[in-house]
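Can't attach files on this board, so I'm pasting raw text. These are the components:
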Amino acid sequence: DQQVKQNSPSLSVQEGRISILNCDYTNSMFDYFLWYKKYPAEGPTFLISISSIKDKNEDGRFTVFLNKSAKHLSLHIVPSQPGDSAVYFCAGGAGGTSYGKLTFGQGTILTVHP
Amino acid sequence: GAGVSQSPRYKVAKRGQDVALRCDPISGHVSLFWYQQALGQGPEFLTYFQNEAQLDKSGLPSDRFFAERPEGSVSTLKIQRTQQEDSAVYLCASSLAAGTSVKTQYFGPGTRLLVL
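---
Top answer:
Structure tokens for the assembled complex are below.
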């Protein structure tokens, strides 16, 4: 039972254009979501988060949108840069008194071409 | 240190050998997590510590896996009698105490374990 799914294994985008990475989830208990970026041989690096009470959070070139009714979230990167090429993971976590164990998707490989 | 550190970064073990993986979390972070990441997959939860207490070990694959955090800071993940299926990247993450609405976890670089 995969509670978080990233159905696109890879995405290729031209430099300067928008990258849209998608994530679907099934667990209604998630209270927040996180996006991580991972380069080869490094650990995941935190990018941006969103609480389930919001539908949008923006940080510089990165914006995350959350559609609770569809159980879908997306990460928009505008404009995309070659240095954004990496594997991107979305993850769901439970809030409140929960300690915040994360459930990850399988990841999407983003390639930004110069 | 500024971030989470892990050692060793790479470990090659012969099948049946015991290994120990170390994690130094961010100073002051109460919560510590271990994840296992297989090739081409996302990280999967293994175990959780709040200070020195192991509150959840539901993700540990077998009783060959053991984790500890005796003084509430450094943690060690031990795998006894390693098997080939244990080959993976083992990630450690830490976060501030519970009570915040979004509990962001910060990851170390991981230990890549290869069992031959």
